[in-house]
């Protein structure tokens, strides 16, 4: 069974809503034990509101509002996963974003975690799709950083965020 | 002659003649049609402005004295003094010293000069210009840099230049993989017959390489950005930075304004704008206006919101952009509010991302290849990360402290390009502050520029294109002048090779040219790419590493 369903913030519209509902579904169907919502402050507030409205009990709901990008999502999600001793993770995000998000999560969490993808269909703007393609092309750079190593991850964040690349 | 061309391109003389006469330089209406056909997805770069041919675009850049014949060059980030200048003219004693030691002395010196200028630039009284050729050029370029630094147009030209370089790095890495052609432009070049033999051997591989649609598209992207960078934005920047610089520090230019305006601005429309800005600036100072205020006004006129640049490109037409910039300048003199770009909008990475979104599918391949290469070079990545971090944070500030200054100086019979980098202070050790000591494993080169990741050939493609373009315009003298300044002992051989190249690309009709075909983006395809590659290889093989001496890093300049 999955220990933690991690839902990545997707703005304050349909994408964010659909991702949250997918996470809710994983809890309600007994696939995962707890729900973690990560994103920026507004996104987390929005997703929390939806999750509670859909009947998720507060004790099963975790959140972190410190993310600015996918790399942050993975970093903060891992800190919480460590706290609650979650090893099996369900990763919830939009389908067009999943390839990159999954690779980043696998790298940040390391091989002692199992990350399962749960995609939500999305119809992003052309601009978002183009951005995603360019960002995906930078994934080989992850190789420069030791998988699952905390210090290494902090260094990735510092470096790549400066370049506004992830 | 046709036989010679036929020999290089492995075609019959008749077919070469037919080809040249039927496919050469296309007319204006066709270019206009192309501009409407090719999707313009990128907010900051396009294909063609509506009433300029690519040739006219590039010609513009020659009207603002931004070409190599100038003593120096500037961007919003870099000052480059062409030289070659005896190092003693900078007050340095490098005789018997290593390059590293001399660069350290140079860095300390340049840092001092920059600080001096920063504090005293408005107090300079230059009724008689400094005797030192270096200082004359330096002050001129320093004021240009001071005006342009931190503006949106500075970021735009920087981002376009980076994009060009990324494209050429991709092409050269792929070319090496496809053809096995060496990464290094080593040796002194080979003879003409030997070159033809080598070209013959490479023929099939070059043809296969040029058939790949990704390669064609990346090269066309390079051409597009280069046309805009060197042919358009650089000229527009010139209408402000030149006259304001003259008024501030070059009274002899102001006194002989008609002569200098003609030299700097051969294009009538641009000369008109430059003249107006010169007169307005002069009036402003004569009426007691503050020199610092004038610089701020000039900066504001160039710090145009990039979405406005885009609107001019898409809706109004880029040829109105100089008019808009002049209006902004006038409003600034009247003290009226002028909208400028935000720091976020003019971040180098923001602009570069937008440029990458255009034709994102092929651009993603360019970035992926580069990422894969860098992923194998942790030392280079660490260096790049620290350097980019500084550049990115500095680029959007209007008054960042110092320029990077390159100067070609000579001592003990050798000439070297020395570099002062404010982000790697001379007091720091090489390991801490400079790029010396960073080694690229895959090419076994010391890391100096991003191109070192794939060898030393990428920038020679741009140089070859510029040479072809100038020769096609009949500007052989300019091509030779470039070599005279930079080739040193190899100038004689350079002259021979340029003469040969001119013969190779000559046609019976002076209005038609091989470069014209390459520049006509409407019909640019694998055949044109192959044609270009062969001419580029001809130069590479004939000149050897001497060709590298002609390649500048920034795309705004040849």
Plain-language structure description:
- Chain A: Residues 3-133 form the DUF218 domain.
- Chain A: Pfam families: DUF218.
- Chain A: This is DUF218 domain-containing protein.
- The complex is a heterodimer of chains A (166) and B (558).
- By secondary structure, chain A is an alpha/beta fold.
- Chain A has a single domain (2-162), classed as HUPs (Rossmann fold).
- Helices cover 49% and strands 19% of the residues of chain A.
- Chain A has six helices and five strands; from the N terminus they run βαβαβαβαβαα.
- Chain A has helices spanning 14-28, 41-53, 70-83, 95-109, 126-136, 150-162, and strands at 2-8, 32-38, 61-64, 88-94, 114-120.
- In chain A, β2 (32-38), α2 and β3 (61-64) form a beta-alpha-beta unit.
- The mean pLDDT of chain A is 93.
- Chain B is globular, with a radius of gyration of 23 Å.
- In chain B, the strands form two sheets. Chain B has a four-stranded mixed sheet with strand order 1-2-3-4, with helices on one face. Chain B has a two-stranded antiparallel ribbon with strand order 5-6.
- Chain B has 558 residues and is mainly alpha-helical.
- In chain B, β5 (439-440) and β6 (445-446) form a beta hairpin.
- Chain B has a domain at 2-66 and 159-225 and 455-550.
- The relative contact order of chain B is 0.18.
- The two termini of chain B are 28 Å apart.
- Classes of the chains: A alpha/beta (166), B mainly alpha (558).
- The A-B interface holds A 127, 129-131, 133-134, 136-144, 159, 162-165 and B 41, 347, 349-350, 353, 356-357, 360-361, 363-368, 371-372, 374-375, 378, 381, 385, 388-389, 392-393.
Taking the alpha carbons of the first and last residues of chain A, their distance comes to: 30 Å
Could you tell me the CATH topology label of chain A: Rossmann fold
| Total number of helices of chain B | 24
| Computed Rg of chain B | 23 Å
Unreliable spans of chain B are 1-52, 63-69, 395-399, 426-434
Structural class per helix/strand content of chain A? alpha/beta
The figure for the number of domains of chain A is 1
